[in-house]
Amino acid sequence: MVQVCLNGARGSADGAVVPLSPQAVADSAAGAVAAGATDVHVHPKTPCGRDTLSPRVLAVTLGAIRARVPASVPVGVTTGAWAEPDPAARVARIRSWTVLPDHASVNWHEPGAEEVAAALIERGVGVEAGVWSGTDGTARFLRSPLAPKVLRVLAEVTDPDPATAADTARALLAGLGTARGRPVLLHGEESGTWPVLRLAGRLGLSTRIGLEDTLFLPDGHRAASNAELVAAGARAWALARGTAGPRGG
């Protein structure tokens, strides 16, 4: 699986290429799916460009994307604490959603992660357990009673150094072990994005790519769109997978 991460917490300062409005994210999602993405992750935005868990904004954003991509393509959102810092308010927002995403990411190191994940599961929304390197998210996830119930583990390598990001990823995966039996999606960020994506290919793991994680292509040129990143990411993943040994290299 190659998931496209359309925008993340980026804003207008990151350039016009980053989609912010419902129509822009829908157009970008359609292009990314045409380029090979099989899953969509988006951060719904207020008109001023701030991440939000507002039921109204969520409904409009999901509706716009689903009108442009095949019904077989799941669409997920963030529940990051920066969008709603108070855990109780975050849970209340989720319970007020009138249109549901197919899945939502929950950062397991954040306060209230268990309650947020439980609220999503209660509503039938798949949970991507975000486990970040450099945090206690791995330990908290592995001892969570909800771990076997999540859709997958989103192993997020926060090391932006291209020289060390792959090693950081290996350490994160080693700490996860069997990940309580759940599938793992491995990805990096900024300059660590491409080394980690290639490692995911060698290991046969799902990955993601998009303007949330990086603004740049493997050759260092600035990406013109999420579709361009997805096309490059799918090629890089497949090439890495092709050079792996019979057990994933």
TrEMBL record:
It comes from Streptomyces plicatus. Pfam families: BKACE. InterPro entries: Aldolase_TIM, BKACE. The lineage of its organism: Bacteria, Bacillati, Actinomycetota, Actinomycetes, Kitasatosporales. This is 3-keto-5-aminohexanoate cleavage protein.
